[in-house]
Amino acid sequence: MPYSTKVMEHFQNPRNVGEIENPDGVGEIGNPVCGDIMKLYIRVKDNRVVDAKFKTFGCGAAIATSSMITELVKNKTLEEALKISRQTVAEALDGLPANKMHCSNLAADALHKAIEDYKNKKKKPESVSKRDE
Amino acid sequence: MPYSTKVMEHFQNPRNVGEIENPDGVGEIGNPVCGDIMKLYIRVKDNRVVDAKFKTFGCGAAIATSSMITELVKNKTLEEALKISRQTVAEALDGLPANKMHCSNLAADALHKAIEDYKNKKKKPESVSKRDE
Amino acid sequence: MIRKIYLDHSATTPVHPEVFEAMIPFYKERFGNASSIHLFGREAKVALDESREKVAGFLNTDPLEIYFTSGGTESDNLAIKGTAFANRNKGKHIITSSIEHHAILESCKFLQKEGFEVNYLQVDKYGLVNPDELRKQIRKDTILISIMHANNEMGTIEPVEELSRIARETGIYFHTDAVQSIGKIQIDVQKLGVDLLSLSGHKFYGPKGVGVLYIRRGVRLTPLSHGGHHEKARRAGTENIPGIVGLAKAIEIAQRDMEKEESRIRLLSDRFFDKVMQRIPDVFMNGHPERRVPNILNLSFKGVEGESIILNLDLKGIAVASGSACTSGSLEPSHVLSAMGVPPDLAQSSIRFSFGRSNTEEDVDYVAEVLPEIISKLRKMSPIYEQSKS
Amino acid sequence: MIRKIYLDHSATTPVHPEVFEAMIPFYKERFGNASSIHLFGREAKVALDESREKVAGFLNTDPLEIYFTSGGTESDNLAIKGTAFANRNKGKHIITSSIEHHAILESCKFLQKEGFEVNYLQVDKYGLVNPDELRKQIRKDTILISIMHANNEMGTIEPVEELSRIARETGIYFHTDAVQSIGKIQIDVQKLGVDLLSLSGHKFYGPKGVGVLYIRRGVRLTPLSHGGHHEKARRAGTENIPGIVGLAKAIEIAQRDMEKEESRIRLLSDRFFDKVMQRIPDVFMNGHPERRVPNILNLSFKGVEGESIILNLDLKGIAVASGSACTSGSLEPSHVLSAMGVPPDLAQSSIRFSFGRSNTEEDVDYVAEVLPEIISKLRKMSPIYEQSKS
Ligand SMILES: Cc1ncc(COP(=O)(O)O)c(C=O)c1O
Ligand SMILES: Cc1ncc(COP(=O)(O)O)c(C=O)c1O
């Protein structure tokens, strides 16, 4: 379990914990096998992610990656944001232990889901709001 | 390999080592598997074993049992001598390690062979002396 | 300086100072090989024999039935695979429980690949095996039953006497893994009625890398380790004399101090439990409330993943374990808690506090003090704790 | 007080004082379980990783190919049975030599009962395996060749590089038991060209109860010990950290001192040999006169059984071993000497002197002094020595 200093730093002081009220996009990703569940909220303005928040149930890696991605994504255009991959997050944290690369590195997936959610909402606001009921 | 004090005493100071010239009986017993070879010489007078000597190639137990039996047998009648068993020798030595009870406890067999040899010689002196040539 | 509080005695323990003292001469001047017939060897052999007698005395049996191994895992492997291979002409069916240690479960899985059939008994919500259930699973071709004495994750003590009686009635070998019960409760192989029993040195202040398998006379068993005639040709390998001497000394100490330690540890554990329950909402105990070894306390903190608790406690110098996943390097939640019907999220949220000799009231009070803040901080971050409140 | 001279270093060695020092902290404050994720566990893990790197460095390979076991016997068992079980779909034929350690031979015998076929290569009078003979025995279904590096009874060094090359050409795994060569001669797994290699701590001033199996990447192998994910799931069981740290330290020391020790020991052995040959008639050396590890000298004293020599030397405080029978508790003469064509009585008459760190010139001079009297006394008692003189 040798986490990098950066992982431990984000784990101890996670950035952007919480929810965004009436978010423009939400990505939820959960892995019942390894037990990590992550919810990522974004606020989008002029095709840019202007705010991001998260809630995570998970191990050190899961919390640190969540925190890191909310930092990474801020002020990125949606196109840039979609380029953020699991690898990007792991590298920004100076690496993750091998057995944490998969299950606990879901932040990028959550982000992509949130953006997708945003795009869906924008395309067909009707149907989406219906689904929310 | 925990030999009793008595075994070690006989091993260090074996009694009656050697040969008897023109013995009345010789018993040789050898076990090529465990490597013990024993030669027991007896002198018989008036149906009694009056002297006994041995030569032994073998382990501590083999040497101690050889030594002990030459002591035990002296001045015994042939009938008494034939009653000396492996068990008798082992007991006289305050016991032998379990894995030594068989291969290295041949002295009684050698004694019985020597007595047999003596009896054979007495019965048919001719044929025996012929065999010796 | 940061305080260090070790609450993971079920994972391993430091060697007791008296154990260490007892081992030293066998690293130095009395270093002989117990198979050698010269003085150095005989000294080692005496130490080996004396150690075997001590262990036998503790278990209430004959030294000839005590076999030294390299640890609990080897003892378990030897018990399971050794009896299976030696008795496969009698049958190929084995019964165990679903909450055994991996050393048992993986040995059984290996045997399944080799053509054996294995039944894994279900347990109730406390982790108890049901004797009637065992009775139902027994077949004509059942050759071995293995049910652990005390569970390593939540401490529940199985009804081994009752289970072994069923095995005896039907003429089936019974093995129990007593790695977690030794030093905590009495282990008398006659009373327990078992044919095989596993121990491991490092779980009760003995050294790592040494264990015991008790094998009742007459039990047929194929060795796993072939070679010299060590351990009556049932476990080849130059005997680890310092380790064996250390294990025997640890047994001696365990026996001597058991009563006193047991009640002291029980008080510590209760005290800690009470404080935690007072201060933190939504905490659930896993395992049987009474029928368990006193040194293990397994709690699930709803909405918070285990590793994140461990790491936060670790930053405060406190060492605990989790039924979550990370300990084994795997990423599945505890098979023990799952088998007891604990839902996955609560299994992932479980922490095992295991108390031991070094722990004081101050220690547990300190932990009970820092824990609420940690849990509350993590719950604020949790997407599932809020959900369950709404 | 009686002098104590230990000339049985091939049986076992005391731990080097620096090794012992290195182990102490891991019995005491740094006692954690390497699987635990808290501080105590991480400390243990670091020690484990560092030890693995040291061993890998010595063997000239990657730490990922180093597996810790409970000793030479387990390493041998794992190598032989592990590869046999994992590759039985490819074939069931194994080749080894007739002079291997019992850990190899008995593992092979076990496999024969399980349906494998094993060829035991003959050796010449020096104990050398013939590469051409190996080549002849190879079949389409040969899956493993195991030939030891240096023999434990008479020290002969086998042509492992040449033998392994043949294995490589034919795509067969090659294992070597290097338990007796480590610390005496260089061991470089790349140069040796082996796929698996066994070591044992206690033969080179490391602790008992810990060994190593080198497993080249890609080798398929079924574990013998099932359980947790220790040692990349190839050898379950809580890691014996003090033992592993001790073994690694012993390797470090062996590497550091090898050259110096080797020549010192060679001189001691030669000096002793010369004196014995001058003073005692009818003594024969067993093993190769040059191609052998310098610390082992095996001599047969015609007409005198080995154990009786051992006991007499023991009474003078001198510890040696014999190729006779008693060491193993069996009563058959050495299978090694027999395979070399040494007649049974000479095999029973063999003594192994194995020198080591503690031995001085005074030691060997003393032994060379008391030995003639002992041999002569025993020969007077011998029914076969006289015979051979007449
Ligand atoms: C119940 C149980 N069985 C077996 C083992 C394995 O013992 P060892 O760590 O000595 O391999 C353990 C501990 O890991 C255990 O808790
Ligand atoms: C050549 C050889 N292989 C294997 C072994 C077995 O090693 P261990 O004593 O560690 O079980 C030994 C020593 O007994 C040996 O000399």
Q: Which labels suit this protein?
A:
A: 133 residues, 3-stranded antiparallel sheet, 6 helices, C: 390 residues, alpha/beta, Aspartate Aminotransferase, domain 1, Aspartate Aminotransferase, domain 2, 2 domains, 7-stranded mixed sheet, 14 helices, 13 strands
Distance between the termini of chain A: 43 Å
Name the shape of chain A in a single word. globular
Q: Alpha-carbon distance between the termini of chain C?
A: 42 Å
Stretches with pLDDT under 50, minimum 5 residues of chain C: none
Average residue pLDDT of chain A: 89
Helix content of chain A: 40-55%
Helix content of chain C: 40-55%
Strands side by side in the biggest sheet of chain A: 1-2-3
- Biggest sheet features of chain C: 7 strands, mixed
Bound molecule kinds, no repeats: pyridoxal-5'-phosphate
**Major beta-sheet overview of chain A:** 3 strands, antiparallel
Biggest interface reads:
C-D, 73 and 73 residues
Tell me the number of helical segments of chain C per DSSP (H or I, 4 or more residues long).
Answer: 14
| Beta-strand content of chain A | 15-25%
Oligomer: heterotetramer
Which consecutive residue ranges of chain A, at least 5 long each, have pLDDT under 50?
A: 128-133
Total beta-strand segments of chain A: 3
